[in-house]
Amino acid sequence: MDPTVVGYLALEGLVVGSVYALTALGLALVYGLLRVLHVAHAGVYAVGAYCGWIAFDFGHSLTLALVAGAAGAAVVGVFLDWWFYRPLADRPPLVPLIGSIGLFLAAGDLLRIVFGPYQHSLPAMNAAPLVSVGGVTVNATQIFVLAGTIVLLLVVYWISAWTRLGLAWRSIAQDRETAAAMGINIPRHTALAFAVASAIAGIAGVMVAVYYNQLSPTMGNEPAYKTLAIVVLGGLGNVWGTVAAALLLGVVESIAGAFAGNYFPPQAVAFVALILVLLFRPQGLFGR
Amino acid sequence: MCKRLLLALALVVSPIIGAQAQDTVTVGVLAPLSGFAAADGKSAVTSIRLAAKTINDRGGLMGRKIDLKVYDDQADPKQAVNFARRLVEQDHASFVIGASYSGATLAAAPVLNKNHVPMMAAYAVAPDITMDKPYVFRVGLMGPVEGRVGAMLAGKLGASKVGMVNLKNDFGQALQQGFESQAKSQGLDIVFSDTYPLGNKNFTSMLVRMKTKQPDVVYASGYYSDAANLVRQAQSVGIQAPIIGQDGYDSPKFIELGGDAANGVYITTQLDRDSDHADVQHFLDAYKSETGEAADMVGATAYAALEVMAKAVDQAGSLDGDAVRRTLAGTTDVETVAGHVYKWNDHGDPIKTATVQVIRNGEFHRYMNVTDQDLLTP
Lengths: 288, 378
What we know:
The structure holds 2 protein chains of 2 kinds.
Chain A: H1 3-34, H2 41-59, H3 62-85, H4 94-115, E1 129-133, E2 136-139, H5 140-162, H6 164-174, H7 176-181, H8 186-212, H9 221-233, H10 239-260, H11 269-280
Antiparallel strand pairs in A: 1-2
Chain B: H1 2-23, E1 24-31, H2 38-57, E2 65-72, H3 77-89, E3 95-98, H4 102-114, E4 119-121, E5 136-138, H5 143-156, E6 161-167, H6 170-186, E7 189-196, H7 204-211, E8 217-220, H8 224-236, E9 243-245, H9 252-258, E10 266-269, H10 278-291, H11 297-316, H12 321-330, E11 332-336, E12 339-344, E13 350-352, E14 354-360, E15 363-370, H13 373-376
Parallel strand pairs in B: 1-2, 1-3, 3-4, 4-5, 6-7, 6-8, 8-9, 9-10
Antiparallel strand pairs in B: 10-14, 11-12, 12-13, 14-15
Helix pairs in contact in B: 2-10, 2-11, 3-4, 5-6, 8-9, 11-12
């Protein structure tokens, strides 16, 4: 096999996997704290992309688009926690799950009704090759997604390992009652988790919109199901396992698409992996 | 007293309503206004309304105004069947414009054919739509014909080695089949060929494998949002060979989403923006002033479908399904906003011109018009 082809496959896989990682990470964080699968997170991601698009149209600045995407998504995320998940906290877990699926569908249709069924463009960068690494050309959008993902992952690592907020999240995830008894304000820390998770998803939405130069009302559909598979692969609620699973899925999909795409759709990799993991390793690839 | 008044009112009003019904011609429209194909449905219905307005402004159909009955079939065959029945049974449509995708149009066609209601399909490509249905016609180009035109263009661009990227659905397969048969007769060498599923976003690995075969021209089938990704990624991996697309690319959105990478892309299509034909310029201007956006191929074929039916009705001097059908079958040389139709063949498919447009400075422009009837006959 031609080594440059392998290089391109790895590059494409890492870029796609980075975006999976950023969206799935929020899902893992929320699951860790609430034990709820926050399917509407993919809707928050799409809303973030649209916020970034509006800001870019307005100011023609990528920084402004990223800030607007993060802020818009964070506001929606905190609102969902406060208005939707908190009132349902005492119901069986199926209730918030089904409601969350409904919210996700509503988000897509709302975007369609307000902004039209068409794709929109976010032309912040063009796709012309920028540098060549061993025969593999890399363009600005790919560097943007990879570098942005590394920065965001470092931020999340810093919050979770070095701040009191991270400590509080870990204690809530381990034992909610004891954490509350120790004086940790659970609603406040949960809201902050929603804010951080949603802001990251919003930035991921803007990144995808820049990478493909496209955003559409249905852009959340693919992350909606793939992130579910990823958080299970990563070991439910295990944030770093989730990140590793996301990158792995991106690369495997890229390779499967290149060599078996005609017989086996790469979109199905996530589900096959999900089924295999549930059968043989239900704690997840990286769970204990 | 009150009752008597109402009765009197009814007696006075009913002839007026009746007269109004007599003064209009009901034309059915099936188009996807919601769901995944909503953008195309919107373009088609906007264009049909413009065509109806143009016809009504010049006196209507045999002196009667066109009254459009538009149903949103969501490009779903089940919905299309139900709405086709409603158009026949409740609305008593004189004829129907099929402005939806192949699946939905294919489902509606037999219902209309059985009830002897003529149908004109706009941009649906499936060959079966018109097959064995004397009342069903089409105004758009057939997939295999467009594929042949693509291969002719590849030869014209001086290519001897072609790389193919094919969309895996009926549209992509029809194009591929047409392209391959013509490529063979022209002696073109297909050095790479692979397929992708609808909605695919990542073409890099496919394009890199193609690049190693050094094609002179890339023939890639698809719809504009996937195609925009494809041309961006071709630019990113450094493929310099010209890319040939088809009317699936034909949307101002392709240029918007493809950005700089869209420049230099050729498409085989039906709407010639640089046509000096008055109807085409009228359509382009009217669409632009109605929506603020540039018209596309879907809109042009939908506009042409109503235009052609109106001409047939006027020529037949009757709204009777049989008379309209016979007139259409015998019609030759009709100029439409979606090209010149030489005639309709026995299936009801058009033998018509195609146009090759190239994108320069973010705009579609004519590269050449294709009038070779041997190449264009389905």
